[in-house]
């Protein structure tokens, strides 16, 4: 049976959802071994790019414009239209123009392209699976990025979109069990069509590296914004005041200048380096010995899974599905400076525990988060949706 994938974003972007969609594109043969034929991946631009570049260009100017627009109601609405609705419409337009329409099941990786598809095709729509890369609260990230839209009329529209899509799609997939449970708590009537599938990534070739923990070499990866809250890590370093602890910040975004100013003003310049958005994250992870994440909100971060694959101990905030990643391989913290400071002090004084965390990280990655496990789970779900359709046709 055949599938096609729809996504309003850019599969070349370095965020988690884009990496997952790209893995669908890259694992066509793996899907084939599960009797699933990948027809195509439809995005706004249908881009094909060389992924071997070591560094991607800065998008700071876009972040500045986005931040300025987000301050007003009208600016936020314009931004949401341009970033989400317009790109979702473009993905569906590319599907209409380029697909031979032989797919048995469509997989959507965002709610906007799914909404536009069902509005366009209505009764003639194909069976579908909607994947939501959130913590279970569909609009929480948008509300955080665009606080000005928290007006009754706009919130009502977003709720209507969510209801419409949830009614139409056959299965709703979350990337963690916690996210799924959060959604069911809000939308219990969709419980029977809801499930979760962990994100998965490729296994690396050389896995014999043994980490050394003489000094803490921290690394964090993510967009520099208020949701990722990298400032909490910087505040913790200031409180600990141990110059042997180093931190590399990978990513770009609207908070870059603010974070850089904090580093300069608080005499952290010898401890902290800003590496920007990078295409060589694996190499960077291998050169560090602890991964740290301070996010206020997440679904199931690919960046942590990538760190586990590189045998890094993890310090991460207990939000979204992160607790499903952290078992005996790190420390869960609250998204505040006191908790992060305590965790860093704990491992700095007891570095011997980090070797155990390191081995556990890789073991957990192998058992749950390799890409073949994700592909198998999606393949089984596609077959479930397809055979439900087949049985319905036979009954009719």
Uncertain regions spanning at least 5 consecutive residues = 48-61
Query: Which percent band covers the strand fraction?
Result: 5-15%
**What is the assigned CATH homologous superfamily of the largest domain?**
Glycogen Phosphorylase B
Instruction: Summarize the helix and strand pattern as letters.
Output: EHHEHHEHEHHEHEEHEHEHEHEEHHH
Q: Looking at CATH, which topology of the largest domain would you report?
A: Rossmann fold
For the sheet with most strands, the description reads: 6 strands, parallel
Nearest-angstrom radius of gyration?
A: 21 Å
Global outline? globular
- Count of individual beta strands: 12
Number of helices: 15
CATH class of the largest domain: Alpha Beta
Q: Helical residue percent?
A: 40-55%
What report would you give on this structure?
By secondary structure, the protein is of the alpha/beta class. The protein has two domains: 226 residues, Glycogen Phosphorylase B (Rossmann fold, 3-Layer(aba) Sandwich); 152 residues, Glycogen Phosphorylase B (Rossmann fold). The strands form two sheets. Strands 2-1-3-4-5-6 form a six-stranded parallel sheet. Helix 9 packs across helix 13. The radius of gyration is 21 Å and the shape is globular.
């Amino acid at each position: 049976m055949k599938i096609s994938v729809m996504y309003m974003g850019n599969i070349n972007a370095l965020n988690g959802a884009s990496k997952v969609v790209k893995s669908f594109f890259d694992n066509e043969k793996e899907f084939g071994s599960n009797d699933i034929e990948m027809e195509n991946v439809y995005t706004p631009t249908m881009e094909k790019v060389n992924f071997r570049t070591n560094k991607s260009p800065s998008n700071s100017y876009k972040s500045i414009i986005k931040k300025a627009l987000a301050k007003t109601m009208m600016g936020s609405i314009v931004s949401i239209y341009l970033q989400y609705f317009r790109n979702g419409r473009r993905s569906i337009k590319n599907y209409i123009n380029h697909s031979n329409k032989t797919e048995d099941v469509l997989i959507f990786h965002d709610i906007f392209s799914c909404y536009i598809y069902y509005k366009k095709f209505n009764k003639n729509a194909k069976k579908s699976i909607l994947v939501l890369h959130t913590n279970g609260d569909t609009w929480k990230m948008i509300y955080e990025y665009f606080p000005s839209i928290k007006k009754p009329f706009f919130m009502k529209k977003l709720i209507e979109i969510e209801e419409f899509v949830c009614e139409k799609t056959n299965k709703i997939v979350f990337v963690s069990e916690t996210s799924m449970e959060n959604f069911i708590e809000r939308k219990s009537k969709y419980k029977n069509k809801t499930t979760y599938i962990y994100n998965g990534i490729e296994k690396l070739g050389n896995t014999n590296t043994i980490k050394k923990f003489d000094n803490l070499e921290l690394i964090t990866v993510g967009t520099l914004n208020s949701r990722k809250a990298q400032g909490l890590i910087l505040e913790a370093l200031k409180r600990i005041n141990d110059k042997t602890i180093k931190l590399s910040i990978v990513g770009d975004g609207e908070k870059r200048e603010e974070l850089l100013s904090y580093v300069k003003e608080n005499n952290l310049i010898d401890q902290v380096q800003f590496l920007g958005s990078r295409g060589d994250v694996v190499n960077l992870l291998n050169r560090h010995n602890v991964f740290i994440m301070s996010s206020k909100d997440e679904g199931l971060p690919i960046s942590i899974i990538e760190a586990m694959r590189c045998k890094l101990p993890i310090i991460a905030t207990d939000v979204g599905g992160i607790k499903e990643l952290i078992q005996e391989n790190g420390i869960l913290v609250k998204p505040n400076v006191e908790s992060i400071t305590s965790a860093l002090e704990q491992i700095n004084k007891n570095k011997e525990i980090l070797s155990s965390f390191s081995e556990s990280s890789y073991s957990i990655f192998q058992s749950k988060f390799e890409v073949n496990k994700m592909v198998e789970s999606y393949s089984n779900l596609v077959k479930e949706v397809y055979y439900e359709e087949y049985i319905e046709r036979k009954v009719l």
